[in-house]
Amino acid sequence: MSQPIIIRKEDLIQIRFPKDKVLQSDLEIKIRDRELEKALSLGNLEHGKVKLTFLDLSCNIYQIETTIWALTDESICLKGDLLLPKRAVLSII
Question: Domain of life, per the record (predicted)?
Answer without folding.
Answer: Bacteria
